[in-house]
Specification:
With about 475 residues, the protein is an alpha/beta fold. It has 17 helices and 16 strands. The radius of gyration is 24 Å and the shape is globular.
Length: about 475
């Protein structure tokens, strides 16, 4: 049986201009030398935000903003197309048709004065539809046999517009029908990430950052030998380099470690990316599209035992909600009632801490906080504390050495901790503290566990299962 393809996903900064697309083509060409390859691309950098701005402008009937915005985007895309295509006129004609459809869609929204979630998804999808056309043209111009594939035909989702959920059985059938024949013909399929469609063909999006997720979904459906996420950093780092100057690349992570880091704020990887890869045991590699010959970070089923922690992650500007009820806390169903309020308001909870009379939770999306507080106050006392941060230390070493959690907390004794939690997976220790001291706490923790000359106690195999 022939090996599966490599799926290469390129983010917005990797398709920002003709020079970046040239590097992209070279990376795809190098991968193609070792077997089949599939390219999944994001919109040109900044385009998705601009599309959603135009959706909002259309909802107010602002025709002038629509015309100016469409003209600006079309000029940018056509400029890049002319710089990378072997047949610039042919490619710009294809783009012009796409922009005509896009303009008509915006005008329809303007007529109705309503940008529904369904309409916003249809509008947002044009970023990837257009960028993938350009990348397919650039690949062909370089002599690489490539073919554009409409991702809406290959990725089937439900109709949760704005955060659609893939339907994997249907997607595998769609990939077999629309992607595998391209690979079988010896060509590189080029698809837009982030977008899909319902079984009825209605355009959907997977949510912001969903291009990583798309790549993993396609990789799982194709039985890929590796999923590569090409971005603008050298891999997963031991901490946010904008906060900790001495951070360095983590050469290898387990799926579990990578999932925890992505969930708790490591923006290199979309939190959902790992799930399809885990299901099919497909390695994921994070690489820098500006470099050639790098090894990046390899994410597999297990991590090497060469240090106590893998990395740190931090979520800034989160909110703590305290729910107190001396009458209700121990009553049957109380916790369920609390969590149901957050679920109804689509406000995911990151960290939970309970005491005899209260429960504290953190949320990073507080747009419906007033509604949440109002519902909770019908059966409990509620207080809210903003400008907090979550600092998370992640590593499979925590599962092997039960003393490590104490060392982490001991190293943070100079910082007032609002909440402390260890995940059921025993793979992370999480603290909540004032946002104003989060950076200092991360720098201190990194110096303790990750400095090149730091003295760290060995992790003992078998101490904890």
């Amino acid at each position: 049986m022939s090996p599966g393809p490599v799926v290469l996903k390129f983010g917005g900064t990797s398709v920002v201009d003709a020079e970046a697309i040239g590097r992209l083509v070279r990376h795809v060409s190098e991968a193609r030398q070792h077997g089949p390859a599939v390219a999944v691309v994001s919109a040109l950098s900044g385009v998705t935000d601009r599309l959603l701005q135009l959706a909002s402008a259309a909802a107010t009937g602002n025709s002038a903003a629509i015309e100016a915005g469409v003209a600006e985007l079309q000029a940018r895309h056509e400029l890049v197309a002319r710089q990378v295509a072997a047949d610039p006129e042919g490619l710009t004609t294809v783009l012009a048709r796409g922009f005509a459809e896009f303009r008509n869609l915006l005008n329809a929204v303007a007529t109705l004065r309503d940008a529904s979630p369904r309409s916003r998804d249809a509008i947002a999808a044009y970023g990837e539809l257009l960028s993938s056309r350009i990348v397919a043209g650039a690949c062909s111009a370089s002599g690489l046999e490539a073919a554009w594939v409409d991702a809406r035909l290959a990725l089937v989702t439900n109709d949760s517009f704005g955060a659609a959920v893939p339907l994997m059985d249907e997607t595998e059938s769609a990939v077999a029908a629309h992607v595998l024949p391209v690979i079988a013909a010896g060509e590189v399929p080029v698809l837009g990430g982030y977008i899909g469609a319902t079984p009825d063909g209605v355009t959907t999006t997977l949510g912001r950052g969903g291009s990583d997720y798309s790549a993993a979904i396609f990789g799982a459906a194709l039985g890929a030998r590796e999923i590569q996420i090409w971005t603008d950093v050298d891999g997963m780092m031991t901490a946010d380099p904008r906060v900790v100057p001495s951070t360095h690349v983590v050469p290898r992570l387990s799926f579990g470690e990578a999932s925890e880091l992505a969930y708790f704020g490591a923006k290199v990887l979309h939190p959902s990316t790992i799930l399809p890869a885990v299901a099919k045991a497909i390695p994921v590699r994070i690489l820098n599209s500006r470099r050639f010959g790098g090894t990046g970070t390899l994410i597999t089923g297990s991590s090497p035992v060469d240090g106590p922690l893998a990395a740190l992650a931090c979520k800034r500007h989160i909110t703590v909600v305290d729910v107190t009820s001396t009458r209700m806390l121990m009553a049957h169903g109380f916790l369920r009632r609390v969590f149901e309020v957050f679920e109804r308001c689509r406000a995911p909870i990151d960290v939970v801490s309970t005491s005899e009379v209260s429960i504290s939770v953190t949320v990073d999306d507080d747009r419906r906080l007033a509604e949440i507080a109002s519902e909770l106050s019908s059966f409990a006392d509620v207080s809210v504390e903003r400008d907090m941060a979550i600092l998370c230390a992640v590593g499979d070493g925590l599962r092997r050495d039960p003393r490590l959690a104490s060392r982490i907390l001991g190293s943070l004794e100079q910082f007032p901790l609002r909440m402390v939690s260890q995940a059921a997976s025993r793979r992370n220790v999480t603290v909540v503290l004032q946002d104003s001291v989060a950076a200092a706490a991360m720098i201190h923790l990194h110096a303790t566990f990750f400095a090149r000359d730091a003295v760290t106690q060995p992790v003992h195999e078998g101490v904890a299962g």
